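Weekly structure sync - notes
Attendees: PM, LS, DV (DV joined late)
Agenda: review two folding runs queued last week.

Item 1: First target. Sequence and structure tokens pasted below for the record.
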Amino acid sequence: MREALFIKQNTEKWKEIESEPVTTSDRSNPDVLTDHFIELTDDLSYARTFYPTSPVTRYLNGLAATMHRRLMLNKREDRSRFVQFWRIELPLLFRQSHRLLLVSFLIFLVAAALGWVSAAHDELFVRLILGDDYVNMTLENIRKGDPLAVYKGSGQADMFLGITINNIRVSFVAFILGLFASFGTLVVMFQNGVMLGAFQYFFYERGLLLPSVLTIWIHGTLEISAIVIAGSAGLTLGNSLLFPGTWSRAESFKRGAKQGLKIVVGLVPVFITAGFLESFVTRLPLPPVVSSAIILASAAFIVWYFILYPIQLEKRMDGDTDTAD
């Protein structure tokens, strides 16, 4: 069969397969997903045999890999939906957003650098960003010999609840503002980055950078990382409107909103853990080695679960797909 005829006969079927929902909970007959996967692998085998170097073969290989991941998501869906979400579905969503995660991180990093430099060249900049009340309170605490006493100033339970709710709110704001062509999300990332840079310079200027890092980053490693990841969720939403690709803009937005929302929801446990650390652990007079261990463990978790594990999971699933073929 000529390649053009092969493509013409199967284009509609491939489009239908490509638009399959991600989970079986979205369809009335889950068996259709399996039937489509079998048909797709048959077409892929045929294309590999007769058109090995054709773009259609590469397209079918990618589509088959995507279908295989969907099948893995739906495996034992009813009995282990919660486990599957955290073990497979959410990491794969993170993998799809890795490029936007890099963009979010770079914007935040550049903003933090600008905040640092601005604070170094303008002594009023820190007050403009952090507020006179906070700066005056911290200066008073420094004079008393406890520069980070702010973390001891309120009840632990109330502090935990307030911090956690606020951080979750910030993450959802960063996500929702992606509606404004991703610009709103970038503004949130920039504001938070500038604030962090100015905040750290404030302590550096007074010779307290290391003590501040060993204290603040006990909770800040998880908290700041989660905010940056929430930024990738907002960019996912915004890009679904800006770059719909082969989808209609409405369908692209629907998919982007669903993907971004799941990412933000997936960050809730991270914010809860960060809130717990800030309220119950940061205030403790911990030895530097203990503080460093908590910070490094938090950073290792972020890098593993949000970056390395999704890459490994995708490669493993793609390998399983090649074996199935």
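Item 2: Second target, run right after the first with the same settings.
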Amino acid sequence: MFSRFIPTPPPLTAKSRVYDLKTRLDWGEPALTIIDVRDLNSFNHCHIQGAIHTPFENLAEQILSHLELNRDIYIYGESDEQTAEAATKLREVGFKKVAEIIGGLAAWQAVGYPVEAISAVV
């Protein structure tokens, strides 16, 4: 009876807007992973808060060894094309729940969502 009054986050879809991911994060849903496949310098400069860096070149191998195939994964790259390629790689090795973040980091920043940066040690 009360569940109809409690908003729930949207389900994972093959292509997701940044709003969909942010809603899930705000909901407090821990069963998802955000993957950034851009180069390490770009990742260190700025990335979606909570994202992990996994190089595009060996993405499938690294993720296979760390995540279950039914894990919800949100992925983004340098462009929507790179994002789509990365998502395809993961789907081809058996990941069932992979969402491409449309617009990637730029879309995330455009609406003012939190980002992180890794400072260079001098």
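Discussion on item 2: The radius of gyration is 15 Å.
Action: LS to circulate a short write-up before next sync.
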